[in-house]
Amino acid sequence: NAGVTQTPKFRILKIGQSMTLQCAQDMNHNYMYWYRQDPGMGLKLIYYSVGAGITDKGEVPNGYNVSRSTTEDFPLRLELAAPSQTSVYFCASNIMEMNTEAFFGQGTRLTVV
Amino acid sequence: GENVEQHPSTLSVQEGDSAVIKCTYSDSASNYFPWYKQELGKRPQLIIDIRSNVGEKKDQRIAVTLNKTAKHFSLHITETQPEDSAVYFCAAKAAGNKLTFGGGTRVLVKP
Question: Where are the beta strands (DSSP E) in A10-102?
Fold first, then answer.
């Protein structure tokens, strides 16, 4: 049972480069989220999705884009990487009912130099 | 939107003592309050949660209390052990299913 899978685990980007962080879940969860965690800090919501074709902004969406073409996948796109985007990125998902556990992926550690 | 404040940011306790972490939230519509534990370099994992129709919930050495009137909830860890050392996050979920996290508490259990 894979759960929530993120790729890659580590990445170094140069300023101005772009990349896509991949997230896939095999639990048929409707809701998916992207969080960023800066060193020693809490989790900030970037974007979330309540189902295929539906996405919405979280607390810190600037500099990022998402899409949700299938229930399973929720990729996060960085178009013009900046040093301020150096962080650990976590994808999470949960089922449609509101009050249920959110399962997290193992994280992607991104460094922008 | 929802705002969750968490205190303290760091907590050092002797093994066997109790640890208490407190959180406050701003949105009175929030009705689900999970607690996550994150070990160094690992993903956050749920340790306990409480829903708005319950005032207290216990699971072995861990308990959570909720005061909806005051809009605060707390995590209590009794008989702390070295393996309890980690960062703990509270969270609150309101309408729209957005889960908002507190800033985290780094707990160190000294043997």
Answer: 10-13, 19-25, 31-37, 43-51, 54-57, 64-66, 76-78, 87-94
Give yes or no for a contact between A86 and A110, defined as CB atoms under 8 angstroms apart: yes
- List per-residue pLDDT tens for chain B, 111 residues long: 789 999 999 999 999 999 999 999 999 989 899 999 999 989 999 999 998 888 999 999 999 999 999 999 999 999 999 999 999 999 998 776 788 999 999 999 999
Amino acid at A72: E
In eight-state DSSP terms, residue A73 is B
Please give, rounded to a whole number of angstroms, the shortest distance from the CA of B46 to a CA of chain A. 7
Tell me which residue has tokens 């996550």.
B36
> B84: which DSSP letter?
G
* Residue of B59, B97, B100, B105 to mutate when probing chain A, most A C-beta within 10 A: B97
Using a 10 angstrom Cβ sphere, with 0-12 exposed, 13-18 middle and 19 or more buried, the burial of residue A7 is middle
Query: Is A105's CB within 8 Å of B43's CB?
Result: yes
Nearest to B43 among A50, A94, A104 (CB): A104
- Tokens representing B111? 């043997």
- Of A8, B50, A55, nearest to A47 by C-alpha is A55
Tokens of A23: 């997230």
* Partner-chain contact B49 A101, CB within 8 Å: yes
Distance of CA B66 to the CA centre of its chain: 11
CB contact under 8 A, A104 and B32: no
